[in-house]
Amino acid sequence: MTEDYFWGLTLSKDHPTEIWDPDMKSPGGGDANDSHALRGEHTLVVKQAVLGPKCSDGEVNVVQAEAMGYKSDIKFPIAVLKGGSQSQVVLDLLFPDPPVTFKLIQGSGPIHLLGNHSVGSGEMVGEDDEDDELEDELDEEDMDELEDIPDRNSIEEKKRKLQQASNSKPKPKRAKAEDEK
Considering its fold, how many domains does the chain have in total? Predict the structure, then answer.
């Protein structure tokens, strides 16, 4: 089961760095979200970067993300926005593991990052249990009847393969008639 939440942060000259880490402890010693303790696997999808209205015209603002890569941490710019011309950019960046550090490396902002924070338990709820219960309810006679019914997907697959085979056969060449003199 997965729960999705709206997520956002603002980077500016006064607050140039923000770390997304839902497992991080708050300074008071408790969880950062004591009222709504989130457990499980966390993923973040950053969908959009929007330049704030107070940005100076012509100023180039660059946001960098640092996250875990396959073998090491990676740092790359994810958004470059220019005041007065490009005020937003659509992104589709998945960060499957916290922590992720967002940093305003050029410009004074503000830049707002928006997306989805998903929390999942990592296990599929109820699907295997339902299959087991269905098998228990059906006796052997019912199972034999189900096996005799052709699978619709296999029939469709056979039709598709036959059609592909007929389309892929080379067409016979017609002999050209020679001109008689």
Answer: 2
